[in-house]
Amino acid sequence: MSTEPLNENGIALDANGMPIESWGGKFERKFKENPFVPVLAGLTTASLIIAGAKLRRRDSTSLNHWLRIRVLMQGLTIIAVVGGSWWYGQMKHQKEAAAAAENERVLERAGFEARLRAAEEADRLEKLEQEVQTRMAAQSNSSKGGWFGGLLGRGSSGGASGSSTSTGNGSTA
Description:
Layout: H1 23-33, H2 36-56, H3 60-142
Helix pairs in contact: 2-3
């Protein structure tokens, strides 16, 4: 029985949380990343096998020809490995840069939405405050008279002197 932890899809994970690949799956993934390396390695192997067959027949000119082809194939394989690694690194760098740009765009969007919500909330509170002030002004204008609901007569309409004038309230002293 295997004791590797499984993810939600039932795939076995290693100690780092990465999925464990079979050798066939790994070959397929690597072949997709750089298809020239396995092809050239196969050609190198084929040229070596043909050179071995030529050695058994004691055909030295053909043997030398196939050994030179093997060296050429090995050189091309090394170039493919180095070039593929460089290319894969460039592509990985581009993907990381694109992911970072996307992440920055998402963070920028989230910040914008947060600022927008704060502005909308401030606008809503400002309108609510204006509505309350309008109602208070309307309520104070619609009251029966000045101070204490008309018990002390009409008060001044906001003057700083504090003097009150009686305007036909019918109150005589």
